[in-house]
């Protein structure tokens, strides 16, 4: 079994068992069978008893964390008239599985039964991915005709969409195996008429990845290729979180109609899912994703450090050796923009920013959008009624961009100041601020003003 990209980055393999079938089926009315799975002598799964009234098969999504050298042991437990006996089948490793089918067949010398264990493999994900994309189209076709979020099931298309985007745009991050897992969970989820509170809470947390989907959808393949190394860790962590939640939903729904058994981890089926931890970790990785778009080490440009155009480059050290005439020209370059008579102040007021911890989702989305350098969408218009917080959002955005040295300039209109509503003032102020931030621009601006004083 070849390693999935998620597994490689985690230093271990996420091995998914989907079905265990016992052949031949039980026919003895007094016989029951159960099963346990051990990995490196540790119990990882305790499956419920089956009798002649049900197929001799367990269908689950069993997540097992293994290494390529881990020994996996399947133990069959037989009970005849309440007399139990256990049989350990020969141990196997994940490399023993058929890569294309994900199956391994085990035989025991002392009993007639054979165990066929099915699992998911990266090879299967490659083969099935394109066909399973149809499932996503069907979900969107059915639920997009309804009001948004009219049903919680609609939210589960978000993990499907994210995994499909990652699989196509960032293959180094995996995605196809995750997509296959999400499809299996969706197929079961779609059959449910009612959902319990735990599953509802899990689904309600999924909108956190909606802005991530939007950013990945907008970014070009070139941008994503350049950002892969920075995006890889948060994306893999998000997929792992969603896989874990998906596995829980799948197994909880499978177990819903069964009585008197324990769940796959050997705990009572009424054990609650740690929703708070799930939401907190999802929010943490959401922030990490948006932070990965930002420059890793940027600082505001020191306007006296250098001036550069196609033919000249003047550093601070060079300036000390210039003649008085050259020094005068250097000073003039920075004084010239003042002829634009900018308003002071005209930029953002930090006191008008959003309160800490508020509007983070929309701010992160906008901030990520600003850092997609080859985005064909160069202009963003934020509209809304008076008092809805547009100024606060713009102020907070300016503050965040300023901290990373990515703010070229800003201009805020004010109703109580006619000058701040003058289009010429707006242009002059922005030109002045850009010149202050960008020495190369200041050089070109001073040249343009000298060439045409009417500017």
Mind explaining what this structure looks like?
There is one protein chain. The chain folds into 3 domains: 5-120, Immunoglobulin-like, CATH 2.60.40; 122-291, no CATH class; 306-451, no CATH class. It has 455 residues and is α+β, with helices and mostly antiparallel strands. The strands form 3 sheets. Strands 4-1-8-7 form a 4-stranded antiparallel beta sheet. Strands 3-2-5-6 form a 4-stranded antiparallel beta sheet, with no helix packed on it. The relative contact order is 0.08. Helices cover 42% and strands 16% of the residues. It has helices at residues 5-10, 122-143, 157-169, 176-189, 197-204, 210-218, 221-255, 275-291, 316-319, 324-335, 360-370, 390-403, 423-437, 439-451; strands at residues 13-23, 31-39, 42-50, 57-66, 72-80, 83-88, 103-107, 114-120, 306-308, 313-315. Helix 3 packs antiparallel against helix 4 and helix 7 packs antiparallel against helix 8 (275-291). The longest helix has 35 residues, at 221-255.
What's a quick, concise take on this entry?
With 455 residues, this protein is an alpha+beta fold. It contains 14 helices and ten strands.
Helices and strands in order:
Layout (H helix, E strand, L loop, with lengths): L4 H6 L2 E11 L7 E9 L2 E9 L6 E10 L5 E9 L2 E6 L14 E5 L6 E7 L1 H22 L13 H13 L6 H14 L7 H8 L5 H9 L2 H35 L19 H17 L14 E3 L4 E3 H4 L4 H12 L24 H11 L19 H14 L19 H15 L1 H13 L4
Antiparallel strand pairs: 1-4, 1-8, 2-3, 2-5, 5-6, 7-8, 9-10
Helix pairs in contact: 2-3, 2-4, 3-4, 3-6, 3-7, 4-7, 6-11, 7-8, 10-14, 11-12, 13-14
